[in-house]
Amino acid sequence: MGPTISIVKPPETIRVPEVEKGVGCDFDSYLLMPDTSLNERNARAKAALGNRVVILGHHYQRDEVIRFADFCGDSLKLSQQAGQSRAEFIVFCGVHFMAESADILRQPHQKVILPDLNAGCSMADMADIDQVETCWEQLQEVGELKVVPVTYMNSTAAIKAFTGRQGGAVCTSSNAAAVMRWAFERGEKVLFLPDEHLGRNTAYRMGIPLEEMVVWDPHKDLGGLPEEALRRARVLLWKGYCSVHQRFLPEHVERVRREHPGIHVIAHPECRWDVCELADEIGSTEGILKAIAASPSGSKWAVATEIHLVNRLAHQHPDKLVVSLDPNVCVCTTMFRISPQHLCWVLENLVAGRMVNQITVDTETRRWARQALERMLNLS
Ligand code: 13P
Ligand code: SF4
Fold this sequence. Notes:
alpha/beta
């Protein structure tokens, strides 16, 4: 189901004289605003809203946006934060699946806003609910396979609800191993959605050999696999990937080690298996952040993840060398869609008593998706 835009009146109009009345619902006028004026306007609107708003920012957001975030984190930390905050409005500076997860975990009085509805995730779009339902039916026809679904946070609310209904759980890149272990206590096989690489990297590090994993291609009958392969496999990996992380290659690791002897390579688990094998460490965005912060002055790091986080880390640690593993900029173009102009538009509209870009998940989807998310949160 696509995002819904609602324009509703909050229970009371917020009276804030210092913010110009007449700010429109129309985003176009914000496009012309120079970045220089936005810092001040965003700060003013945020101050006017006070504790009625909480701004959550994923590590891949731009600096001009992240400076207004009350909480900055990876998808696990932000989902926990969404469930704990008391603010009336949760403005999620991230991508669509993250805002949906916040809406699933929010308290009844809260509303979730995504500053740009076009901020999606191509990986999440690779698992369509109809394809996943077909996969599940076909697996049942093969026989008593005892499969437990595990879906990465980077999936639509419909996929999370499917996972909850079928007794499975959500995972993030920082707790995928714990969730997979949980799933193997309940079944013989795991269907891992939608990131092939996170599934493979996690299972392999739990001691499951590559020969016991198969890739399910949703565009082929029975995933393009012989029945026998499905019966033998312990992990069924959905054929999905992140176009940003898949760009990191083994030759990048070899080159950076040649250019900077002694450099430490750390890769996000959405990277290919061969890259993770060559890396010194694997870490979620939060894990990367902690590893670099804990390293001694003078240490050298090549990081395989989105460039905004890499640049921020380089800036925060001037006493260390922090470079991207791929010298060609790896940017998540959908995370980048959240601009200071979008943030200003949603905040000033809230100040004026209007809500734009609300994300709402329907009640039934929410019920099951919440179960899958809570199973994960109970393990974290
Ligand atoms: P994290 O869970 O590490 O924040 O990753 C989210 C993401 O989208 C990475 O591409
Ligand atoms: Fe999706 Fe990849 Fe962007 Fe993360 S970096 S939001 S997985 S496209």
